[in-house]
Design a protein that fits this description.
Length: about 290
Amino acid sequence: MALEEEAAGLYGVPLEEFTARRNARAKELKVEDRELADAVGRLPKPAVAASAVNRLARERRDLLDALLELAGELRAAQSSGDGARLRALTGEAHAAVRQVLAAAGGLGDAQLDQVEQTLRAAMADEGAAAAVRAGVLVKPLAPAGFGSVDLTGAVAVDLAAPETAPVTRKRHLSVVRPAGDARRERAAVEEKRRAKQANEVRLAAERALDALEAARAELASTVEAVRHAEQERDAAVARVDHLRSDLHQAEERAASADAAVRAAGRALDRAERNERAAMSAAEAARKDLEALS
């Protein structure tokens, strides 16, 4: 318990301070408990994503608890075969995961992916959920396959086994169990196996529904983009038709104006010839008049 308490304190410090704080605490403990000091000194520095989850367990416990409660409701809906409830809860869980990820801001894409995988592992497996709630992760978790989430090396301390667990296990190995106990144990193991398989099926259903939701959103966005493009195309076609009409009218007006210019040129030529003829006649009349006088 002492090591768990020490780990709980250390894995809550900022990642960049972890090593210095761990070493300083181990040095302090050597005075009173060398064994505990050595154990503290061996606590590994957490990965970036694991540290982010540890921080969420302390700073946004409300979001984590809400997500993990939803996970329990999802498992219940899966067990009861309530498809409508399962779909509704899946949507809520998807939104809750996004909310927790938003609270873990300041991470790169790869680290955010690892945080999301850790959250989904906690949703799929109660042991992983306990590890996430404890806030002493050393490395991110992976969602369950056809078995429970592998926590080996993922948590700083053993959360499940008490300090006397090794002695208890040795004592149990030496006891010959009755056949009824053996049958009950086998039934319990089989039930656990089926529960794990059900968890895997549920997780696959969640992923499929998440993918369906994303595909539907992408389809809606694409349909809207196509509709907008069609509207722009129709407007452009109408504009081209309008410009073609304007061009045709302008060409007709230009042709009419050209014909008017040519007619005006011919009229000008006639007027100039008439002017020259009138001037010649006037000059002849003047000369005739001078001759008479």
